[in-house]
UniProtKB/TrEMBL annotation:
A divalent metal cation binds at residues 78, 116, 260, 264. Belongs to the GTP cyclohydrolase I type 2/NIF3 family. InterPro entries: DUF34/NIF3, DUF34/NIF3_sf. One of its GO terms (molecular function) is metal ion binding. Keywords: Metal-binding. The keyword RNA-binding does not apply. This is NGG1p interacting factor 3. Pfam families: DUF34_NIF3.
Length: 326
């Protein structure tokens, strides 16, 4: 920060550095995205813990959770600041949360599409789920052999991230039944109660499970613009518009959607949290070896905590006919 009287938590700086190493900002789609450090809050010595909270959406409930936990930083996958602001007011719920977080000294960082594009990132995780790779530790589950490619490769990606890009295409070496893929998705995304599935209207009832799928187009979140027109048998994404789904099944394709953020949230637990913990430890080890820097400078005295928000959830839930108690 340019103001010498204001300092940021060393732990916050260390966490931001670790996230950037895992998901470089250069991978983000800057044509529309707003990634990076969106709120740099001044340090309040002794007030906050060496802890970070991972979330998909930074809602009021998540802000309340971070304040109660006394986290130093929130890593919010979706940018809470997405368009230029002309003012900060308490009347706007999102701005209210940001003002409260700044008052507490809690910073906010968003990696968004950099996570989508990174090798081993969000879209590769979705590909692992639908191919069965995600379950390789379960002896009873046999992964489906396949080839995997990018829909939109990133040109001039940073060194070490040459295979980065947006969206994924999976091509199975032998066709897989749609029902098997649906089962993998419901379990891999956190045992969802249900999915939205669309198939060509010519398929009779009772035969949909066994529709043979040889290729899948994958995009986390809202995949319409990326998946439309793709030459694949199945589109797997968080959401498509009504007309996009109709167009897909009219072309003989199938569709699986899970609601926008349900294709993203479980990634925080299964991949991002352990990767961030490992990267933080690796950064400190490297500094200790190369520069003899102690853990105090990196804000890691007494250890640290990386948690996934318990308040964060998709705004939609599936309510079945006759369901009560909700």
């Amino acid at each position: 920060m340019s103001n010498s009287t204001a300092k940021v938590s060393p732990f916050t700086q260390t966490v931001v550095g670790a996230v950037k190493r895992l998901y470089p900002e250069a991978l983000a789609d800057k044509s529309f995205d707003n990634t990076g450090l969106l709120l740099e809050a001044p340090l309040r010595p002794g007030h906050l813990r060496n802890s970070a909270l991972l979330t998909i959406d930074l809602t009021k409930a998540v802000a309340d959770e971070a304040i109660a936990r006394r986290d130093s930083i929130i890593i919010a996958y979706h940018p809470i600041i997405f368009r230029p602001l002309k003012s900060f007011t308490l009347a706007n719920s999102q701005q209210n949360s940001l003002l409260r977080l700044a008052q507490e000294g809690i910073s906010v960082y968003s990696p968004h599409t950099a996570v989508d594009a990174a090798p081993g990132g969000l879209n590769d995780w979705l590909a692992d789920i639908i191919t069965g790779q995600f379950y390789r530790s379960v002896p009873s589950v046999q992964p489906s052999p396949h080839d995997r490619s990018l829909i939109t490769p990133i040109q001039q990606a940073p060194q070490g991230f040459e295979k980065a890009g947006y969206g994924r295409i999976v091509r199975f070496l032998s066709p897989q039944p749609l029902g098997l893929l649906v089962s993998r998705v419901t379990q891999g995304l956190g045992d969802l109660s249900g999915l939205s599935v669309a198939v060509p209207q010519s398929v009779p009832a009772g035969q949909k499970y066994n529709i043979q799928i040889s290729s899948v187009g994958i995009c986390a979140g809202s995949g319409g613009s990326m998946l439309n027109g793709l030459d694949v048998d199945l589109l797997f994404t968080g959401e498509l518009s009504h007309h996009e789904a109709l167009a897909a099944i009219e072309q003989g394709k199938c569709v699986i959607t899970a609601f926008h953020s349900n294709t993203e949230r479980e990634f925080l637990k299964s991949r991002m949290r352990p990767a961030l913990i490992n990267e933080l430890e690796k950064m400190v080890e490297e500094k200790e070896i190369n520069e003899m820097v102690d853990r105090e400078k990196w804000g890691l005295v007494g250890g640290f905590d990386i948690a996934v928000s318990e308040a964060d959830r998709d705004p939609y839930e599936i309510i079945t006919s006759g369901q009560t108690g909700w």
